[in-house]
Every structure is written in structure tokens, then in C-alpha cells.
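S.,

Sequence below, as promised.
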Amino acid sequence: MNKLNHVAIIMDGNGRWGLKKRGSRNYGHLQGIKTVETVIKASIKEKIPFLTLFTFSTENWQRPQNEINFLFDLIRKSLKKKLKTITKQSIKINVIGKSIGLPSDIKKTIKFIKNKTSKNKRITLNLALNYGSKEEIVNACKKLIINKEKSINVKNFAKNLYTNNIPDPDILIRTGGTKRLSNFLLWQIAYTEIFFVDKLWPDFKEKDFNEIVERFYKIKRNFGKI
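The prediction came back faster than expected:
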């Protein structure tokens, strides 16, 4: 049976779900938080060490300002409101992405939450915030140049990514019916098993998550071998 260390998720479909239900994209984002909680609980049950959620991309800045404001307000409130639960469940919070451009209070909240949960060991929840994979790769190249690396190889390149010390995802799930990667973990998913789900994110249930995990366990993973 395959070992499952890391699940990454593109949580697509909140806006469309909200428009369909209440005529409001923000309502969809609000309901999507419940699915986040469901998936975290399911990951803990399955004893998955790492879970990465695509929370806000570098391209999301192109959305209407009121939606951007709502999303960051949701992040603020969710992290602060759930801190006791996060600590009690021994969840370690990590953030990957570019800090430049984020609201100052969000950066302070992230720093506080990361420090508060740094010793938690049950599961590491990576929030991809202001994240773009192409920019991550370019930044890694710049670091190698600045550090005057004499030898450039896969190993030392990976050390300069946001995901240094995090295993590459074994599973990538994208909800919402769209079959693309949207500039998410392009380097890291070279051998990841990808599952596209037609359900919108607020409709994604624990049963759906568990079914994907069970399918993963049965896949023959060759990594280039026979």
C-alpha cells in the first residue's frame, strides 16, 4: 500500500456555489470554511502529516476589491477564532507564498499563529497565501545566484522553494470541475496523483475525500520504473 504523506488541494468553486445558492460569491467563501474544517479532520483521522490548501493566489489580486477584502477578513477571523481548536488538535500552521503585498495585520497574525503552533506535531497545515508557483521557481533561481551556488541540481534547487523540508504532495485534489493546475506547486507535483472532482468546494464531503484516499492506496506508482 502506498504511503500517504501529503495532500494538496485547490479549493475551487466557492464563488460559483455562492452565486447559485444566494447570489453572492462571498457566501460561497464563507461556506467553504466548513469544508476546510471537514478536510482537516479527515486528514487527521487518516494520519496524514501534511495538508496544503491553495488559499489565495498571486492572480487572485485581479478579483473585485470587495471580494479580496472579504477573503482576507475571513482568513483573519478564522485563524483567530479557531486558534484554541488548532492548538488543542496539535495542528501546526505554516504559510507558503510571498509576504510582500499582504496586509500588515495579516502578516502579524500569521507570525503569531506560526509561533504559537510551531511545536504542534499531529499535522502541518500549509496555507498557500499570495502564492504563485512560477514566481516561487523564479525566486529559487535568484537565491541560487545570490548565494553563488557552484553546483545547481534538483536537490539544492528544491531547498530554495517555499516548500523546503516539506515532502512533495502524493495527492492533488481540485474541486469545481476545472481540469488545470492554476500555477499551483508546479515543481512539486511532478509525480503527484491528480484527482479532478466535479463537485464545487462547499459540496465536497468527508466521504469524497476518503474515497480519493482509498483510490490512491490502490494505485501502482512506478516513478519511471516498470
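The beta strands are 6-10, 50-57, 91-96, 123-131, 171-174, 193-196.

Coffee later?
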